[in-house]
Specification:
With about 240 residues, this protein is an alpha/beta fold. Helix content is about 50%, strand content about 5%.
């Protein structure tokens, strides 16, 4: 019997996924290499590795390249998002960045628009490296606005933002998460999405909720799409 490797996040070694917790419970011995901070080793009852890990043990490390020839349990997906939230909090906290600290929802608007256009261009060009970077810049805007909102008297946090998103995705995919209906095609799901959205929003008009601040061409396309879905005769729509 060999040993298993649990890879911890370099910045958040205190966060463990369920698979890692299960492995630690089942291990006969837990050891950690020198990349794992001493306080984390102590918290998890891990001895400092000396030589080869014993058979049946779990080796803790922050080196993702370690243990290529054995069973590896990686850090849970999305853990880097916790790093991003922590960095944003640090920038806005006392002793952080003066520029970041003085930003408001209004002052950040131009950057939100710019970053979305830059991401759009990267996607259009098929540039994967640029897409990754620009997606990060758009994510920064989400984190920034949520952090600003958290400082307001009746504001909200990044967890509230994520919670609303999760509730929306789960609620509009009952065939996936509730098993209460069957959806076999993308077209049917698009229809159900709009039906469930209308039930939630209870909008009086098919064009309610359309963002009027978008460019004229995009606004016209959105209004046309909404009215067409509502059943407006096609001959009344602009060609």
């Amino acid at each position: 019997m060999g040993y298993r490797v649990v890879v911890l996040s370099l910045r958040r070694p205190d966060v463990l996924g369920t698979a890692a917790v299960r492995a630690l419970r089942e291990a006969s011995t837990v050891v950690a290499d020198a990349t794992v901070p001493e306080e984390i080793r102590a918290d998890l009852g891990a001895a400092l590795l000396d030589g080869e890990p014993p058979s049946g043990s779990v080796l803790l490390t922050t080196d993702p390249g370690l243990g290529a020839d054995t069973a590896v349990i990686a850090a849970p997906p999305g853990i880097a998002l916790l790093d991003a939230v922590a960095v944003m909090d640090r920038l806005r906290s006392p002793g952080g960045c003066p520029w970041d600290a003085e930003q408001t929802h209004a002052s950040l608007l131009q950057y939100l628009v710019e970053e979305c256009y830059e991401l759009y261009d990267a996607i259009e060009q098929g540039d994967r490296d640029a897409m990754r970077e620009e997606l990060g810049d758009v994510l920064l805007q989400v984190l920034f606005h949520a952090r600003v909102a958290a400082e307001e008297d009746s504001g909200f946090t990044i967890d509230d933002v994520a919670g609303v998103l999760v509730d929306k995705l789960v609620g509009r995919h009952p065939h996936v998460f509730a098993g209460t209906e069957r959806v076999d095609t993308a077209a049917r799901q698009a229809q159900r999405w709009e039906e469930l959205k209308q039930k939630e929003k209870q909008r009086a008009s098919s064009v309610d909720g359309v963002a009027l601040g978008q460019p004229a061409v995009a606004l016209a396309a959105k209004l046309t799409s909404r009215t067409a879905r509502a059943g407006l005769p096609s001959e009344l729509l602009p060609s």
